[in-house]
Amino acid sequence: MRTPVWTQKERREQQRSQQAVGSTETWARELPLSWRSQWRLALVAVLVGAGLGLRLITVGQLPIHLDQWLPWVNPPTVTLYFPDAQGRFLVPVTRRMASENVTPEGAVRELLRGPKNPAGLRPVFPGGTRISRIDIQDGAALVEFTTASSERADWRLDALAHQAFVSTLKGLPGVESVRMLVNGTGVNGDSVIPAPKQNHPVYYTYGPYLVPVMVEASSPDEALHRYLEGPVPSGLAGLPADVRLLGYRLDTSRGLVRVNFTYTDSVHQLALANPDGIRRTLTGIIATLTGFPEVKAVMLDFEGHAQLGLGQCSDLLRAPQVRPSTLNDEQTIGF
């Protein structure tokens, strides 16, 4: 095998190349350990910070439809309905559950457990009630309960408790009507509980809760006018009475509703005196409008104001807001 013959110029170039590689390797070996550790720690901190930042994003801060790509933003939940303590209103309560339990049977079991924070709410079912069976066929749900023999004679549900039971089940996919049996017989002399009429819920505030009131409305703008015109049931609250609707526009291509209200002194004072209340009120308007399938998001405006009061609700104004992922989150709300 012939040994390569190197010219003097080629030998110099080879030596320079070897020196350059050697210098790089030497620099890497001689780089202080603390510097390398700091670089690694900085990279880890950036990645962790980015992950936490994404998890702190709320649904209202996301562009339309983006929230479906962030599963932790919308954890599995079920909406349970409980009568208020005075027996006047149904209060929807969002309860977090394991995804495998978000079923009709799982929802009924949670109703039987009652409200976790009982202040201001009362249970739907009398004590000692247990599930015997649940069967769903062609959208019709049959739920049978059993009670202790000593409780059979007194077992009954009032009209509001009936409605809470039906509304909870009808909030689940695939349930259109409900039949309830107790110890093999119908409840209150009627074994079939009809589903509520197809009216539209308009959300008002009731203490720390949002409460739906059913109104006749076939479109988002009609529901909004019903909300503003009232009458508001006694004990509930919405926007101040002097607030007027300046503009309404539905962008059907995006599913975006733009709403502009007058910014009155009463709105300003309400935001100052009750910032949680005004936020709850705006959330109720968003929930009302996004209850229509053609509305994916709502943009609220008060004559161009970027905030209400002294910085209140700035994140809810002049930016698309999708439907709230929770209504009356049981973990954070209570009287």
Description:
This protein is an alpha+beta fold. Among the domains are: 76-193, GMP Synthetase, Chain A, domain 3, CATH 3.30.300; 215-322. The chain has helices spanning 8-30, 33-55, 104-113, 159-170, 220-229, 265-273, 275-289, and strands at residues 77-83, 90-96, 130-137, 140-146, 177-182, 185-186, 192-193, 200-206, 209-215, 245-251, 256-261, 297-302, 321-322. Helix 6 (265-273) packs across helix 7. 26% of the residues are buried.
List the helices and strands and how they pair.
Blueprint: H1 8-30, H2 33-55, E1 77-83, E2 90-96, H3 104-113, E3 130-137, E4 140-146, H4 159-170, E5 177-182, E6 185-186, E7 192-193, E8 200-206, E9 209-215, H5 220-229, E10 245-251, E11 256-261, H6 265-273, H7 275-289, E12 297-302, E13 321-322
Parallel strand pairs: 4-5, 11-12
Antiparallel strand pairs: 1-2, 3-4, 5-6, 5-7, 8-9, 10-11, 12-13
Helix pairs in contact: 6-7
The poorly predicted ranges are 55-69
C-alpha end-to-end distance: 94 Å
**Arithmetic mean of pLDDT:** 81
Work out the number of β strands: 13
**Which descriptor suits the 3D outline?**
globular
Total helical segments: 7
- The third-level CATH topology of the domain at 76-193 is GMP Synthetase, Chain A, domain 3
Keywords for this structure?
335 residues, alpha+beta, GMP Synthetase, Chain A, domain 3, 5-stranded mixed sheet, globular
